[in-house]
Amino acid sequence: MQNSRRRFFYVTTALVATAPLYWTWKKLFAEDKRLIPGRMLGAAYQRGHNIFKMMFSKPSSSQQIGTVIIGGGISGLCAARQLKKKGYDDFLLLELEDHAGGNSRFGENKTGKFPLGAHYLPIPSPEFKELIALLQEIELITHIDEKGLPHYEERHLCHDPDERLFINGHWQEGLIPHFGVPKDEQVQIRKFITLMDTYKNAKGSDGKYAFDLPVDRSSADQVFRSLDKISMQQFLENNHLHSPYLHWYVSYCCKDDFGSTLEETSAWAGIHYFAGRRGAAGNANHEQVITWPEGNGWLAEKLLETSKEHLRSSCMVFEVHQNADEKYEIDYMDYSDGSVKRIIAQNVIFSCPQFVQRHIKTNIKELKERTDAEFSYSTWVIVNAELDASKVAERNGTPLSWDNVIYGTQSLGYINSSNQKLERHKDRYNFTWYYLFPESGKEARKKVIKKTREEWVALMCTDMEKVYSGFSDWVLSSDVCVWGHAMIKPSVGFMWDGPRAKAAQSINGSLYFAHTDLSGMSLFEEGFIRGTEVANELLKTTHHV
Amino acid sequence: MDSSREETQQQGFAKPALLLLSVFVIATCGLIYELVAGTLASYVLGDSVTQFSTIIGTYLFAMGVGSYLSRYINTHLFVRFIQIELMIALVGGFSSALLFVLFEQVAYFRLILYALVFLTGLLVGLEIPLLMRMLKDRFSFSDLVSEIFTFDYIGALLASLIFPLFFVPHIGLIRTSLFFGLLNAGVALWVCYTLTEKNHKIQWLKTIGFIVIAVLVLAFAFANKIQNFAEELSYHDKVIYSKSSPYQRIVLTKHKNDVRLFLNNNLQFSSVDEYRYHESLVHPLMSSLNNRDTIVILGGGDGLAAREVFKYKDVKKVYLVDLDPEVTQLFKSHPLLTPLNKNVFNNPNIEVLNQDAFIWLLDQKKTFNAFIIDFPDPSNFSVGKLYSLTFYRKLFQMLSDGGVVVIQSTSPLVAPKSYWCVEATLIKAGFQTLPYHTFVPAFGDWGYIMAYKGALPKLGVLPDSLQYYSSDAFAAMCHFTKDMQRRKVEVNQLNNQALVRYFEEEWGKIN
Description:
The structure holds two protein chains of two kinds.
Chain A lengths: L1 H28 L10 E2 L3 H9 L7 E10 L3 H12 L5 E4 L11 E4 L2 E4 L5 E2 L6 H9 L3 E4 L5 E3 L10 E5 L2 E4 L9 H19 L20 H4 L6 H7 L5 H15 L8 H9 L13 E2 L6 H9 L5 E2 L2 E8 L5 E7 L4 E12 L3 H4 L3 E2 L2 H5 L7 E12 L14 E4 L4 E6 L11 E9 L5 H9 L2 H12 L10 E14 L11 H4 L7 E3 L10 H18 L4
Parallel strand pairs in A: 1-21, 2-3, 2-15, 3-12, 9-18, 13-16, 15-22
Antiparallel strand pairs in A: 4-5, 6-11, 7-8, 9-10, 13-14, 14-15, 17-20, 17-21, 18-19, 19-20
Helix pairs in contact in A: 3-16, 5-9, 7-9
Chain B lengths: L2 H7 L6 H30 L2 H22 L7 H17 L1 H9 L5 H27 L5 H31 L1 H22 L5 H22 L1 H12 L3 E7 L4 E7 L2 E6 L2 E5 L3 H15 L5 E6 L4 H6 L7 E5 L3 H9 L16 E4 L3 H7 L4 E7 L6 H4 L4 H10 E10 L7 H13 L3 E9 L3 E9 L18 H7 L20 H13 L1
Parallel strand pairs in B: 5-6, 5-8, 6-7, 8-9
Antiparallel strand pairs in B: 1-2, 2-3, 3-4, 9-11, 10-11
Helix pairs in contact in B: 2-3, 2-5, 2-6, 2-7, 2-8, 3-6, 4-6, 4-8, 4-9, 5-6, 5-8, 5-10, 7-8, 8-9, 17-19
């Protein structure tokens, strides 16, 4: 009796005590099992991968046309816009995805629009005339003042506060590390910035800027171009710049623009990030950016406006065949009705990335020869979390900004798309988190594709916990976008000794190439100029004007 | 086994083993009171390291004193134990409520804090020795010591985990201590009921136990009231209304005949001198309009500017755009507030639009002749957008020729850069400006800017019922002494938020 009573008493106590302990343990250590609703957005890679597996039937229809543009990213859209602008109507734009825009596409939820990739345009140099003209045309530039400086539509300039960095337990303003950075490292950071300013103003013996945008307008002087032969890491070491804070910062910048590490990035490309832009504006300072809640999707939509009726989306080109009449037969799968169709065209503009172009079947010898060229890509994952704004509790320092970066993590931080909104009160935020997958190549892409949406969301939440305690409880929904081939990597030697110059040459005066892969940098400016110039060249060759 | 015989051997107690379970509850409660005191002291006094160290020290020391004193309790151990439990229930249970309320009130708050901690520690210190003696004949000494301390320490671990993770974030400090007070009282009552020996003393303790539980439950239910009461005390004046809308915390206070409105702790007006502020805001503009048919008020959800507007009989329509329906509703219905704004929200000629002013303005298609702008001060980046060049450009577009705008623009004395930044931005947007300022006791020297298109508005006839403003007074208002002179400042753009930065710099100095 005595013993059984005791046992009963021990069991009860154990139960009473363990229930809350289990709950506490769960709260502290167990993973959050709450299901956050959301979607998988982004590249239709299954569709693309069909090119390997599918046997395509004979085309069910055929039409004749002057020019076909393959790929509706920024370069394709700019090519289309330029053709249209010059009065050339006889073209079609084929896009694999359901929406045009490429890396500039965007998503939307109840809170608003958010970027899925490219999300800003730095203020361009007034010397980049073509781009300035475009920005005037789409009313992003309101007027040019008496000093020749463009004035930008204020609503689209990045609203203050624009950037902050979480470093040493504090949100500092701006991304260049200074809070809690030792004196000698600050000296190195300043030295680096001064050095970059020197490069920014440097000109070659050909009278061209050492580093310019478009990149192909940069000086051909060997003293500058030879920097392509070493890595950014090597460059920093050659200049006795060893500060870990500086290395983090430069590495962050390389990841931001190129998706590549310090060791991979060509020093020429790395310096270009800091020295290639001489932006100037009448109502903004030179380092500000233009941005929208939907990121560069805004620009893509503007570009599309002029050539909407020429766009055929959900269309995958799988063969470009030159026939006996020296015309091109473009066969494509139209996913909107599941049929295979053919267009017979006089000219083709390839504005698709190289990893797509190389898999298009062809009988054209010069085109085939180009498929071996080495183009490598970074792999990105974007997670957009829609948050209950009333729950967001900020740490000390600069308040919530547009671009929010956490020092020392693999992610590139998060964009608060709501920062561009004019409303005083926000019930909800969209935080778009950018994650560069630490590996690249085929194996990395396989891994990335295997992961579930929940896994990516959990990864974002873990990263955000560094600055927001209890973050995952605030998330209302969360969409994930995986980019297996996100951006071309300007690896060592790629800019000036690599395959890009050759790959950009037109063939027979009828095959043209416009994608930013050919620039070595996945930038709006490059897509714009390549699309525009290729269209001009085509019009000139066909004596259209 | 002869169970009836066994029970009689248990010093009149039915369930000695279960009494050990109460050690667990007691230990948890004890540590919770200590943590509550430490947390509360850190909240109100700051420096959590000092607060926690001194409170833990005091508490443990008091427990030692309690243990020592337990030797003087030699009779009626069970009765004493129940009495002590009930005392802990009251002292510990009410500790955080008491400290919250007393913080603003007494100069010797620390003394009370440590006294309370000492008293709780003392009582808790008595508990365990008493329990050991109550059970000493039921268990072998080694078992007893081992079990009592095992449960004591498990309870401590439990308390230290559930307190920060569950109770503080979800229940709040006041309710947490009340809840654990209830547990102590529960133990006391349970012991009463399990005693086999019933006498009138035990009966009496039962009654007291129920009263204690009732009091604690009642306090638990009205914990919000206690919290509000504590808040009221910290506002100096009596809080007559407080509510959190999705946009802000609205608090109304009253002291004699002075009613004050606070939004997010920022004073919006004092009923004693608001007439100075609102007459100066409204009449220079109203008296200079050539056409007063339609007036737009942006902000001003208290209806006080609208009250001044309706002093002109030719006003046919007023649009009042204010974000927060809680505020406009409050000023439409509260019996203390409707006399202040002369019941203006029940005037059929006013239309209240609870919308974001920026979005409302962007949606407008036709122009207006007058805008009275009474936004909150530009103290953060969200409000700063309402003072931006983009906003003023749109305002310029929406203003008819000959129309006038007036904007409350912070203090030109305390924040001259902020004040002149508003003006510079208006000029950049294309407006002509007429800056002026006046003295409002509740705020200090306060600035406004009239902005117009074309010719300088001529001041016309004023209504009779004004207490402060006159055209003579206006001449003086337009004069700026040397320390308030216009200075060179940046234009406030969305991409630089110069105004918010000036405002922070200038008001930061004095706050």
